[in-house]
Amino acid sequence: MDSIRVFAPATVANVSCGFDIFGLAVDNPGDEVIVRKRKDDKIVITQITGDEGKLTLDPLRNAVSVPIFKYLHQLNRNHGFDIELHKQMPLGSGLGSSSASSVAGVFAVNELLGKPMPVRDLLPFAMEGERVACGSAHADNVAPALLGGFVVVRSYSPLDVFKIKTPDDLYVTIVHPDIEVNTKDARHILRNEVSMKKTISQMGNVAGMITGLITSDYELIGRSMVDYIIEPIRSILIPQFFEVKMAAMDNGALGCSISGAGPSVFAFSKGLETAQKVGAVMKKQFEKEGIVANLFVSGINEVGPKMLEQGG
Ligand code: HSE
């Protein structure tokens, strides 16, 4: 195989109460890459589309290529590749845009080289893309983009990541308002200390969320979707956040919170129909205030990255 086209999905990180430890993959949107083997050992980003010219073509500074350098270094291989990156989701959206690129790139190269590593082992390399994009190598977007499903990051050092089962009828609604929130800034405004009281409440919700997911207890999932630590601070960066959340809850959502670092807002619902209705009212609420918003509704994507085409 000399060339490959790969899709990697968008992700919802934090999932309300699980800052930096919970993440899930959705079916759409996502990024596509086309990677072709070169005859020399250069890594070249030949084209980026869908980024409004915002991303660098410098392979040492782009989230799609940095993981590939680290991966090749680890394997002690000198292969060169041309990379085309087709962004199919907005940057700075809270949808794990850089993670989708990182995962797509390193997954594509691993396939082109005949899978010298199991997909799971690509995680530390993909995390390096996150470090380039936002200064911190957190795994809650990258891990679900790579492994699919709902992922828990139990520990960063050593890295310990596992997937948990989710109920079949759980749907994710994401509404992306057309404003940009820089992840670095959204991390910077957080406090370093959290009170004992808030920590206890948050731990109860983390335990409730996991139990609700693995036992398909939708009510418990909903009750656990309260974030005492991050949402109260970050929501100030998202105009209409509380009105949008209220619209979602009034229309049957199990819970609603910020997707990743925002500004996207996500909701969980039981059933596709409810998830679509919830999405329509959330979008309408943003648009009532003149904020253009995109809507995505999806089940939980258990697959992660996908090979779409291969050539050569
Ligand atoms: N857990 C990260 C954060 C995800 O909320 O800052 C954003 O990439």
Brief summary of the model shown:
The protein is of the alpha+beta class. The chain has helices at 66-75, 97-112, 123-134, 142-147, 183-188, 196-214, 218-224, 231-234, 241-250, 272-288, and strands at residues 3-13, 22-37, 43-49, 81-86, 150-156, 159-164, 170-177, 255-258, 265-270, 293-298, 306-311. Strands 1, 2, 3, 4, 5, 6 and 11 form a seven-stranded mixed β-sheet that branches. It has a four-stranded antiparallel β-sheet with strand order 8-9-7-10, sandwiched between helices.
Features:
globular, seven-stranded mixed β-sheet, 27% strand, 11 strands, 2 domains, Ribosomal Protein S5, domain 2, binds L-homoserine, four-stranded antiparallel β-sheet, 312 residues, Alpha-Beta Plaits, alpha+beta
Number of domains: 2
CATH architecture of the largest domain: 2-Layer Sandwich
Major sheet description: 7 strands, mixed
Number of helix segments?
10
How far the N terminus sits from the C terminus, by CA atoms, comes to 5 Å
Mean pLDDT: 96
Helix content: 25-40%
Would you state the CATH class of the largest domain?
Alpha Beta
Structural class: alpha+beta
- What name is given to the CATH topology of the largest domain? Ribosomal Protein S5, domain 2
Order of helices and strands: EEEHEHHHEEEHHHHHEEHEE
Q: What is the β-strand count?
A: 11
Our Rg estimate from Cα atoms comes to 19 Å
* C-alpha geometry: globular
What percent strand? 25-35%
Uncertain stretches of 5 or more adjacent residues: none
Ligand inventory reads: L-homoserine
